Amino acid sequence: MLRLRPYKACDAEVITKWLKDEYAFRQWSADRYDKYPITPDDMNAYYDRDKDSGRIWGMTAFDETGVAGHFTMRFPDEKNLSEIRLGFVIVDSQRRGKGYGKEMLSLAIRYGFEILRADKISLGVFENNRAAIRCYEACGFQRVSLPVPESYRCMGEVWNCIEMELTR
């Protein structure tokens, strides 16, 4: 049974080991990091840039065996606290396909709606990340059309994002 807690700098030591190849790394981070592989210091430096803004924070999912997953939550619009955006969603590579992602996201959804009182939780996922899409859909997220779909240059290709959301 998973629980959530705020991200700690020591979590990066575990999380960065789950990123086994650059393809999976880019599915997780898009172009947010300059290089692969990243170190725990790289991850913490990235998060440290925004730690005092109050707009974004990391969460860690854990159980009795240790850290099992991670994601960020943020308010995409500082003036509108009714939407929470999830990002950097990842589950321990040894635990994928066993329901941990769905369980972690269910906790994130509950936190977003019940604690943060959000009306909507959104996220973006690359269309080439079928396992993540299935997980998000299993948690109730619906695909939404954007006027201009988001896309990123990753590994010499253009990767398109699917926008998804869940409303109260």
Which key features would you list for this structure?
168 residues; 28% helix; 5 helices; alpha+beta; globular; 8 strands; 8-stranded mixed beta sheet
Short description:
With 168 residues, the chain is of the alpha+beta class. The protein contains five helices and eight strands, in the order βαααβββαβαβββ.
Structure, described:
- It contains five helices and eight strands, in the order βαααβββαβαβββ.
- It is an alpha+beta fold.
- The longest helix has 16 residues, at 100-115.
- The model has no long low-confidence stretch (mean pLDDT 95).
- The chain is globular, with a radius of gyration of 15 Å.
- Strands 1, 2, 3, 4, 5, 6, 7 and 8 form an eight-stranded mixed β-sheet that branches.
Structural class: alpha+beta
Gross morphology is globular
N-to-C series of helices and strands:
EHHHEEEHEHEEE
Distance between the termini: 24 Å
Give the beta-strand count: 8
Query: How large a portion of the residues is in β-strands, by DSSP E?
Result: 25-35%
Query: How many helix segments?
Result: 5
Mean pLDDT across the residues is 95
Radius of gyration, CA atoms, in whole angstroms = 15 Å
Helix share of residues? Answer: 25-40%
Low-confidence stretches: none
> What summary fits the major beta sheet?
8 strands, mixed
